[in-house]
Amino acid sequence: MKKVKFALIGCGRISSNHFDAIQKIENAEMISCADIIEKKAREASEKYQIKSYYKNYKKMLDNEKPDAVLICTPSGMHPLMGIEAAKRKINVITEKPMSIDLHSADKLVKTCDENEVELFVVKQNRLNPSIQLLKKAIDKGRFGRLFSANATVRWTRPQSYYDMSKWRGTWEFDGGAFLNQASHYFDLIQWLMGPVESVMAFTATLNHEIETEDQGAGIIHFRNGAIGVVEVSMNTFPKNYEGSITIMGENGTVKIGGVAVNAIDHWEFKDYDDDDKLIESSSTNPTNIYGFGHLGYLKNVVDALCGKTDALTDGRAGRKSLELIIAMYESAKTGKKIALPLKY
Ligand SMILES: NC(=O)c1ccc[n+]([C@@H]2O[C@H](COP(=O)([O-])OP(=O)(O)OC[C@H]3O[C@@H](n4cnc5c(N)ncnc54)[C@H](O)[C@@H]3O)[C@@H](O)[C@H]2O)c1
Fold first, then answer.
1. Total structural domains in the chain?
2. Looking at residue 78, what is its pLDDT?
3. Which of 24, 57, 83, 337 is most buried, by the most CB atoms less than 10 A from its CB?
């Protein structure tokens, strides 16, 4: 069986989830890695027995000609690196968020289209068994009319986390708690509830020396009439406390909680369904805050590249949650209600 050849750019914290996952996928192989700090690329290549490593990612793309590249660099760099890969006819998998602005995100989508390569945006939390069960319940219509959705991210990040790398907490490369830490939650709320009509938000920088926000709250008016609330904090005392989604409808109430939307805290519907037997087995408690979803996510990437299935989250799906977050920022900045779709 032909193996899908991957290369990775950015051998930092999240890269190990990718290296570990690719090793576990039978028809996938990591052939090279790159980092601007050469030592990091060398250490990754030694640890994961990768044949080559580079300091300059463009040289890696030119020399190694991988089938697909995994982009694990600071968020503001994702579009440019993705465009460089797409122009070389290399498929692109970018870590979340795909970009920190819509204009660059659109350029990336367009360049991938023009060069007929696939674009995937990593949204591994959609694969949490608890979230999958909730999505199924919504799709089956078990809630009846949807009334409200709540996403809560009550985590903590010490100043040392932001000081670890210069890109963290900057508008140019990162964004704030909405765009970085809570981006999966914005993705889940719009994926589960459907299209957004308008938003309003407040953000604040309360407890860190950073440019971007460490605290915020947003309200979402969905096109189906439901109202959503998103509360995000990086200032929770004394540690990460909650990462949850609650959906309420005419005939059901579900809360997926734990520290990172893994545990089923509440599951109640008017009518019985055989899926109710799966509550216990779908409730998990991963030791790693990023969860174990990268393996499932990258398996989908490999299957999609082999023509066996569609992408779980392609560039256009990734853009939707980015648009929602950018709209929140626009509201926080202007003090106004912002209608979607955004114009720029
Ligand atoms: N899916 C998830 O749950 C999840 C979790 C954590 C991080 N992320 C995302 O992954 C990305 C990276 O986050 P991280 O925590 O691993 O950051 P990190 O700072 O630990 O790693 C980034 C790496 O990119 C390298 N780099 C920077 N510029 C480069 C360049 N020009 N060429 C090559 N390498 C370069 C850095 O040297 C560093 O090693 C971010 O976009 C973040 O939002 C996603």
1. 2
2. 98
3. 57
